[in-house]
């Protein structure tokens, strides 16, 4: 003891690393699980892997198989070229001018307003008639 402090050296446990399994190992373990009446837990014990991990491998294998079957059943028709006949574009008809003729007594007023500004013409007319 030096000055009231105790120096200790702790041994650290070696870090656990994740095991990496080859594709062949996974395929063999999954194939062993696909036999009738075989317990996934028993196969996992035999191959020394976690049963949940092996269940995931089996589920992934079955998902890939069903996706492959679905792709095989799908038929896509051959794309064909369909020619379209486009006629001459018809010009949009011009909007005729608005013509208003108002008579009050002996007075007559004629107004021409562009048809494209019909809303403004309506506003002007409402204000004028008040």
Question: What's the topology here?
Answer:
Blueprint: H1 23-33, H2 40-47, H3 51-73, E1 98-104, E2 107-113, H4 118-129
Antiparallel strand pairs: 1-2
Helix pairs in contact: 1-3, 2-3
SSE pattern, N- to C-terminal: HHHEEH
Distance between the termini: 108 Å
Percentage of residues in DSSP E strands:
5-15%
From the alpha carbons, calculate the radius of gyration and give it in angstroms: 43 Å
Shape: elongated
Poorly predicted regions: none
Helix content: 40-55%
In which order are the strands of the major sheet placed? 1-2
Provide the structure class: alpha+beta
Number of strands: 2
Task: Count helical runs.
Answer: 4
Profile the largest sheet: 2 strands, antiparallel
Mean pLDDT: 83
Notes on the structure:
With 130 residues, the protein is α+β, with helices and mostly antiparallel strands. Among the domains are: 23-72; 98-129, no CATH class. The chain is built from four helices and two strands, in the order αααββα. A hairpin with a 2-residue loop joins β1 and β2. α2 packs across α3 (51-73). The model has no long low-confidence stretch (mean pLDDT 83).
Entry summary:
The protein is an alpha+beta fold. It has four helices and two strands, in the order αααββα. 42% of the residues lie in helices and 11% in strands.
List keywords for this structure.
alpha+beta, two-stranded antiparallel sheet, 130 residues, elongated, 2 strands
């Amino acid at each position: 003891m030096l000055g009231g402090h105790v120096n200790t050296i702790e041994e650290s446990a070696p870090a656990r690393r994740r095991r990496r399994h080859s594709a062949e190992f996974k395929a063999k373990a999954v194939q062993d699980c696909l036999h009738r009446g075989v317990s996934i837990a028993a196969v996992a014990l035999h191959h020394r892997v976690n049963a949940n991990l092996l269940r995931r491998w089996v589920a992934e294998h079955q998902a890939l198989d069903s996706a492959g079957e679905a792709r095989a059943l799908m038929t896509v028709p051959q794309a064909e070229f369909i020619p379209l006949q486009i006629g001459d574009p018809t010009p949009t008809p011009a909007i005729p001018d608005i013509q208003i003729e108002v008579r009050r007594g002996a007075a007559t007023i004629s107004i021409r307003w562009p048809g494209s500004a019909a809303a403004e013409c309506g506003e002007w007319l409402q204000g004028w008639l008040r």
